[in-house]
Amino acid sequence: MHDRTVQPARRVAYDVLRAVSDSDAYANLLLPALIDEAGLDAQDAGLATELTYGTLRRRGTYDAIIAAAAGRPASDIDPAVLDALRLGAHQLLATRVAGHAAVNESVNLAAAQGRGAAGFANAVLRRISRDAPEHWQQVVESSARSDDERLALRTAHPVWVIRALRRALAAEDRADELDALLEADNASPEVTLAALPGLAEPGEPRRPYAPTAFGSPGGDPRAVVLTSQGAVRVQDEGSQLVALALAAAAPVRAGERWLDLCAGPGGKTALLAAEALRHGARLEANEVVPARAGLVRQALRPLPVDVPVHEEDGRMLAARHPGAFDRILVDAPCTGLGALRRRPEARWRKTPADVPELVALQTGLLDAALDALAPGGIVAYATCSPHLAETTGVVADVLRGRTDVTELDARAVVAGLARSPIDLASDGTGRVQLWPHRHGTDAMFLALLRRDGRPRDGAGRD
Predict the structure, then answer these.
(1) pTM over 0.90
(2) Which position among 384, 405, 410, 413 bears the catalytic label?
(3) Angle at which helices 115-129 and 99-110 pack, to 10 degrees?
(4) Best label site of 24, 297, 336, 410, fewest CB within 10 Å?
């Protein structure tokens, strides 16, 4: 039963933390629903958001501090109590919340696990509250066994993620930007909106690159989104550029057949559908997870066009339609290391062991998509991750096994779309890697691949 002495914003934040810990929930999807359910006003909604994301973002560092204060590893603490301690630690170390309120309400949250849990939480949080954040940072950093471990504790990124990001920047000869990237990952991103082409005009302030992208005046986008009846939606500018690049990669001929192979949750699908509508093309979508396929249908509902949404393994769908499509977006499942600003828990959820399995899936999806292209057709391969194994590694591996594919200059396509000059580092391939610290976008990767042969006339065949 919920304790009445817990303020509603803290209760919402705690419930999200529990769902993330217990059932791998996505905070960015669950939090708005719980805020609505609790009827929080704008001020409390802002507090719940800051507490949720702040705690998730620095979870690894808070766990080290909690372990030092408790004299036992965080993994030995009951998960429900640990989430209450994390929430308390965040308020004590990184917010202006009064110390007594942070301690008391976190203790009340832990108390649901029993009187012993409340006493333990009280002792740990009072111990943390006695010293300044700088002291605790020093304590945990002094236990680090390497420079990377120290950086991990300072910036709240797992060591393996830091190393993957450093390698990706080094591939562009920009390794000196690592600190700026880690800092950007820990900043709250500004809300960016997408105006669907032909259905809405972008408002002010415009974003620098995607012609569809603009900011949310006043920060809360809900009013703008609701009054637009679906013609405007929240979407990262990098995601918008990726979808628009597929449409802009070559002139569109009427009757083209397009496919979004890994469509959930449907943001890029909606943008592609609007582009297809403008150019007289036909779009289909596919999403293997039924709940996410439902989100795709929801995203497409406001558009005045029928987009079939299939629900199957993208590799199987592509294999059943050889040579059928003129453009395919493969926005492949990935580690999500490019969206840590918006999905801060992703850094703690994945491990290096997840990467080989994802790479095998990504390679299979891209290979199958190329087989499903008509001659002259184009695949946009995108990930929301800059991890080299998932980006250039997958593309290079697929290209090595084929003689019927030409890589296009995605950098030129994106630069042509951008409303102002865009700093795209070159690795000599024409692939695009966007970055939060450099572009203010998620770290989206994009490669454009064309199936060799002469483009056919008219619509695709089955």
Answers:
(1) yes
(2) 384
(3) 160
(4) 24
